[in-house]
Every structure is written in structure tokens, then in C-alpha cells.
């Protein structure tokens, strides 16, 4: 007998719904969505995202926005659409508490099993709602599915390029480590730093490969020349993919991308993530606004985002970075994601860490990075 997989639409936290269907759905099952009127637009979103057969999808939507405020109206609306011949697997993780109570009460009159998807613990709990609370009949089911970065972003309604081959490091971990050592040991000269600054200010936004000779002698498109470029490449032992030119990704690497790759390597070695990407671009809907995530990874179906900064000039600048990271999480990534800042700023008195913590952001500073303090 096929089942009907039931979920309550929750715009703020769509992950329990997604994982419940991924874990419980079998070929031939039906899927049912219960939704407040204002959240009904999420139903076609999930149908498309998960590739569900529309002919096997049922929807129960409250008729008016005010209906979700009435327990009796919710119950009457739900009960009126249920079938005594169906077997329902009901996920109670979703919607308002009021909606959840009404849904549980409604399905209890039919052939239904009740579940609660706990994404932080990565389990689904199967519970029997009866008069006995001493028979220990709750069943905890570990969630087997492990989401990729692209999946987690897509569930939150974000277009992204996390699965693009270009979202991987362009240099080996060994080379990036040597670059890091040169940077923190102050072996880069003033001319080296000036050269990197010129590249960052005038050439980082270009999309085409650039002639090294032209950059060093005349500059490009009326932009200043980078006179010390060849000496910098030699000092860093940086061998371009094409000996005569720098690609946009190589310019990005030289002007700060190396630190993102260094952080990427730290996470890969210490956390062993399920999936990890670098420089991921995200956007929502048709908006032209595009955000970039320096390092983003998934572990046990949770999303982790790291903002990488080699240096921070002032407390004010640090506060702006924290606010940006916090706003990005709350507006786009979902409140269940976790955000961090990795920076070569020194926070010896712990004040910056406290500022970040108050905004729900973790800080991994110069001392943590240079001393190799384990990240978790």
C-alpha cells in the first residue's frame, strides 16, 4: 500500500519538509501539502525543486488569511479533504504551533502515523499520540540523506553556482600554505604589497585573461601599469596557467583569494564536510543583486558560511562586516545556517569576538589561524 507524505508549509524553515520527503518518499507515494493561504506559493516551488509528479500531489490551503487563526476552521478544512482509505505519514515540524496542533488533531481521526523532523539532531522521531506516556514507544530514525551546498541553498530559494567546477581551489593546498607563510612572516616587500593593491583596485573585476607584459609595461584600458608584477610573481613562485597571461581567477587569487583557499583547506582538513565550495554566487528570484559566499560548506544537513578577510582596518569596519554577515544569514540563508568570520586581525582582548558573538557570528582570528587552533 502506498503512503501519502504530509507536510505543513513553513516559509521560514523549509528544511524539515525537504528532508522528510527525501527520507520517507517511495515511488508511487502521494505527497500532500497543508498551507496557510499566504504560504501557498511555496507549494509549486517544492514540486519543481523536488521533481514531484503533480498528479500525485494534493494541497490543502486555508481559504482566507484569517482562517489560520481559527483552530476549528483549520480542522474542518483539513478533515474535509482526507480519505479514510489512505495511509498518511504526517510531519508535524512546520507551520505555526497553532496550525500544527490542528493538523495533528485532524489526522488523528484517520489512518495516520506522526513524525517530527529535528534537523539540528538530524533525526526523524516517530511518535504515537495516545494516553500512555510510559511505554517508551517513540522511535528515533537517523536521517541518511546528506545535502550538498547547492541543495541547501536551493531549498532556501537561492539560485547558485555551488556545483560549478570553478567553485574549487585553483592552487594546491601546499602552495597556498607557502603563500600564507610568506604573508604572515612579513617577507613581502612594500613594492609587493603595492602591486597587489594595484591589481585589486584596477584589474580584479576584469573577466578576460590579461597579458602580463601589457600589465607591467602600459596597463590595460587606460588603467595604470603594474610595474612590479613580474618581480612579484617570481618572488611568490607563482606560475600562471599560461606563462604569458593572468586569468581572472589568478588575479583573484593574488589579491586575496589565496586566503579563501587557505580557509577552504582548513575546513576540509579539520571538519571533513559533506560538501564544500569557494566563491559561490547566490541570488534570489529575478533580482540582479548578487552576493558571493567566500567559503561555504555543508555538514550533517546544516549550512555553514565563512566570510574571509585578510585584514580589517578598524573596529568600525569589523562591525560593518559583522552586520553584513548577519544580514545575509537572516535575509537569504535562513536562520538555521551558521556564520563565521576568518580574519588575520588580532583580537587579543576578545572584544571583537564578543561583538560577533552578540550577533550570532563566530570569529576565528589571527591567533587561532597562525597557532592552528582546531576549528569546529
Sheet with the most strands, sense and barrel status? 7 strands, mixed
Radius of gyration: 26 Å
Task: Please report the distance between the alpha carbons of the first and last residues.
Answer: 44 Å
Number of strands: 15
Which residues sit in consecutive blocks of at least 5 with pLDDT less than 50? none
Order of helices and strands: EHEHEHEHEEEHEHHEHHEHEEEHEHEH
What is the helical fraction, as a range of percent?
25-40%
Query: Structural class, from secondary structure content?
Result: alpha/beta
pLDDT averaged over residues: 91
- Number of H/I helices: 13
Strand content: 15-25%
**Mass-distribution shape:** elongated
> Could you give the order of strands across the largest sheet?
3-2-1-4-5-6-7
Key traits:
376 residues; six-stranded mixed sheet; 13 helices; alpha/beta; 15 strands
Give a quick rundown of the structure.
The chain has 376 residues and is an alpha/beta fold.
SSE layout:
Layout: E1 3-8, H1 15-24, E2 30-35, H2 42-50, E3 57-61, H3 71-79, E4 87-91, H4 97-107, E5 112-118, E6 123-127, E7 139-142, H5 149-155, E8 158-160, H6 173-184, H7 190-202, E9 210-211, H8 212-217, H9 229-235, E10 245-246, H10 248-270, E11 275-284, E12 291-299, E13 302-309, H11 315-333, E14 338-343, H12 351-358, E15 361-364, H13 366-370
Parallel strand pairs: 1-2, 1-4, 2-3, 4-5, 13-14, 14-15
Antiparallel strand pairs: 5-6, 6-7, 8-11, 9-10, 11-12, 12-13
Helix pairs in contact: 3-4, 6-10, 7-10
Amino acid at each position: 500500500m502506498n503512503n501519502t507524505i504530509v507536510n505543513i508549509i513553513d516559509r521560514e524553515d523549509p528544511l524539515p519538509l525537504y528532508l522528510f520527503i527525501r527520507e520517507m518518499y517511495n515511488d508511487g507515494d502521494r505527497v500532500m501539502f497543508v498551507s496557510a493561504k499566504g504560504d501557498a506559493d511555496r507549494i509549486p516551488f517544492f514540486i519543481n525543486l523536488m521533481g514531484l509528479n503533480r498528479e500525485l500531489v494534493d494541497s490543502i490551503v486555508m481559504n482566507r488569511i484569517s482562517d489560520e487563526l481559527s483552530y476549528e476552521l483549520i480542522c474542518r478544512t483539513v478533515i474535509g479533504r482526507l480519505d479514510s482509505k489512505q495511509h498518511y505519514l504526517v510531519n508535524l515540524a512546520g507551520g505555526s504551533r497553532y496550525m500544527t496542533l490542528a493538523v495533528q488533531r485532524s489526522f488523528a481521526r484517520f489512518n495516520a502515523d506522526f513524525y517530527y523532523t529535528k534537523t539540528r539532531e538530524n533525526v526523524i522521531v516517530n511518535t504515537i499520540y495516545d494516553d500512555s506516556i510510559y511505554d517508551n514507544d517513540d522511535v528515533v530514525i537517523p536521517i541518511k540523506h546528506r545535502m550538498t551546498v547547492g541543495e541547501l541553498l536551493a531549498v532556501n530559494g537561492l539560485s547558485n553556482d555551488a556545483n560549478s567546477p570553478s567553485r574549487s581551489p585553483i592552487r594546491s593546498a601546499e602552495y597556498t600554505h607557502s603563500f600564507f607563510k610568506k604573508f604572515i612572516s612579513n617577507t613581502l616587500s612594500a613594492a609587493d604589497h603595492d602591486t597587489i593593491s594595484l591589481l585589486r583596485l584596477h584589474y580584479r573585476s576584469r573577466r578576460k585573461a590579461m597579458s602580463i607584459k601589457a600589465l607591467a609595461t602600459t596597463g590595460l584600458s587606460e588603467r595604470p601599469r603594474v610595474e612590479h608584477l613580474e618581480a612579484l610573481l617570481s618572488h611568490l613562485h607563482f606560475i600562471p596557467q599560461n606563462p604569458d597571461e593572468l586569468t581572472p581567477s589568478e588575479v583573484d587569487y593574488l589579491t586575496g583569494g589565496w586566503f579563501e583557499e587557505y580557509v577552504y583547506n582548513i575546513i576540509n582538513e579539520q571538519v571533513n564536510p559533506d560538501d564544500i565550495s569557494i566563491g559561490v554566487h547566490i541570488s534570489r528570484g529575478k533580482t540582479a543583486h548578487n552576493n558571493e559566499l567566500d567559503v561555504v560548506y555543508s555538514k550533517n544537513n546544516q549550512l555553514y558560511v565563512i566570510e574571509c578577510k585578510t585584514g580589517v582596518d578598524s573596529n568600525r569596519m569589523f562591525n560593518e562586516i559583522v552586520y553584513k554577515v548577519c544580514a545575509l544569514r537572516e535575509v537569504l540563508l535562513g536562520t538555521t545556517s551558521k556564520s563565521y568570520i576568518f580574519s588575520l586581525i588580532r583580537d587579543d582582548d576578545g572584544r571583537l569576538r564578543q561583538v560577533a558573538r552578540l550577533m550570532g557570528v563566530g570569529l576565528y582570528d589571527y591567533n587561532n589561524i597562525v597557532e592552528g587552533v582546531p576549528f569546529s
